[in-house]
Amino acid sequence: MSSTLHPQSERSRAAASGLTLFAAVMMLVVGFMNLFRGIMAIVHDKVFVTTPDYVFKFSLAGWGWVHLLLGIAALMVGVGLFRVSLWARVLGVAVAALLLLASFLSIPYYPLWSIVVIALCAFVIWGLCVVQPEDSPDS
């Protein structure tokens, strides 16, 4: 069937699957980072900054559980993204957006790591949204 497709259509499909693969790998990286961040926060590791007057004040263990659960979700979605399916892409954007929001809200606790995760999540969202594969050879 691929011999009947137009060359432009084949390139679009390759680009879509390539960006989805990129997003899947980045989602796995972000998932592992958040998994470790969650574990560190739950056991009250000394790498976190104390912030006495923060508007979104939450216990360190509470933030740890949030990041741990989001990290597990990111790992599951990252594995699902290797199938290049629409449901995995939609769920990937949603989980990456939640990870981005959680990292933004926890910037005062671990600034550098939060900014790195925000950037990676933004790349994941971009990679999943920018290219849509063509379904028919006529398009």
TrEMBL record:
UniProt feature coiled coil, ranges: none
Transmembrane portions of the chain: 21-43, 63-82, 89-107, 113-131
Pfam families in UniProt: DUF7144
Keywords from the named record: Membrane, Transmembrane, Transmembrane helix
Start and end residues of each DUF7144 domain: 20-132
Family matches, as InterPro entries: DUF7144
Record's protein name: DUF7144 domain-containing protein
Source organism per UniProt: Streptomyces klenkii
Taxonomic path: Bacteria, Bacillati, Actinomycetota, Actinomycetes, Kitasatosporales
